[in-house]
């Protein structure tokens, strides 16, 4: 099983102690976002979990927990979003320069292969045209050279939750020629910084620029990190163009405190304050607790995905 921690919130930035407590307990409860009475019980033992994929905009607060995390012997890697929009849009996020210093510390510890830089989402608006993006991207790529081997990008997904941001800022994905010009130049910058550039969940094809489709939850990378190959199924719960392997997300919506105006995982500020105020590092659920009327369901298909290799036998025909 692959654990996603988490597309729904930033566990490394805000909820590291809770996460380590869940590893110690050996299980985590996850409420169904659609049906509140349905709660899955997900095992977190080394026998079940092949890899943890952390998603964060700032790994700094999680660095003190790495010794404890490593003691559980579960492989992991990080997808780290660093973008140039500033406090006007990413309202409570540390500066890119500060975050990059934390990423450097993390990379020195776990290696560049286990760190994926996400320049995501790419947003076009009044103050961010192709030229502005390329200037910011080049600076970040230079700072991250040798710290990561890959950069992944995507364009703004205009979910209903962010319609106000889109309207106020005139934000969007730009024209086709702008996107192609930008991606072609980004690919060259990434190459010069010894990085591979890949797209995330985009139907638009950029192979002419040498840019392929990424699998952010990547069974090949997981196999390298684990030291053994894994079976994987496509994640049907994601967008159509997503290439990710199936995983179990243990996060909770409306709990990220970075305050990014383009975020699809949060609703209005009052919901975030109300939900995050429920945080208890000892709770089996993130920013939540059982009311007593739930159905606790053991996780299905939560066993290890390890492929057993039979000596002398090949599956190639």
Automatic annotation (TrEMBL):
InterPro entries: DUF1848 (IPR014998). It holds the Pfam family DUF1848. This is DUF1848 domain-containing protein. It comes from the Bacteria.
């Amino acid at each position: 099983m692959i654990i996603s921690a988490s597309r729904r919130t930033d566990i490394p930035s805000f909820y590291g102690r809770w996460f380590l407590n869940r590893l110690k307990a050996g299980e985590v409860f996850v409420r169904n976002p659609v049906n509140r009475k349905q709660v899955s019980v997900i095992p977190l033992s080394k026998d079940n979990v092949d890899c943890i994929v952390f998603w964060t905009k700032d790994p700094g607060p999680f660095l003190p927990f790495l010794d404890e995390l490593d003691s559980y012997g579960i492989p992991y890697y990080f997808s780290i979003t660093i973008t140039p929009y500033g406090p006007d849009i990413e309202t409570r996020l540390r500066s890119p320069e500060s975050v990059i210093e934390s990423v450097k510390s993390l990379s020195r510890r776990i290696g560049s292969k286990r760190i994926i830089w996400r320049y995501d989402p790419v947003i076009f608006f009044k103050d961010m045209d192709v030229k502005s993006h390329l200037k910011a991207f080049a600076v970040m790529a230079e700072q991250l050279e040798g710290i990561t081997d890959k950069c992944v990008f995507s364009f703004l997904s205009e979910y209903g939750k962010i319609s106000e941001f889109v309207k106020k800022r005139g934000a969007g994905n730009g024209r086709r020629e702008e996107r192609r010009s930008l991606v072609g130049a980004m690919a060259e910058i990434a190459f010069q910084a010894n990085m591979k550039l890949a797209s995330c969940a985009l139907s638009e094809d950029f192979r002419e620029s040498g840019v392929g489709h990424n699998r952010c939850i990547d069974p090949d990378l997981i196999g390298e990190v684990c030291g053994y190959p894994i079976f994987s199924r496509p994640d049907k719960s994601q967008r159509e163009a997503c290439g990710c392997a199936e995983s179990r997300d243990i996060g909770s919506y409306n709990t990220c405190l970075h305050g990014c105006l383009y975020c699809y995982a949060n609703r209005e500020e009052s919901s975030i304050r109300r939900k995050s105020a429920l945080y208890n590092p000892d709770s089996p659920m993130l920013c939540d607790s059982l009311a007593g009327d739930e159905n606790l369901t053991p996780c299905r298909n939560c066993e290890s995905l390890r492929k057993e290799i039979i000596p002398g036998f090949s599956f190639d025909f």
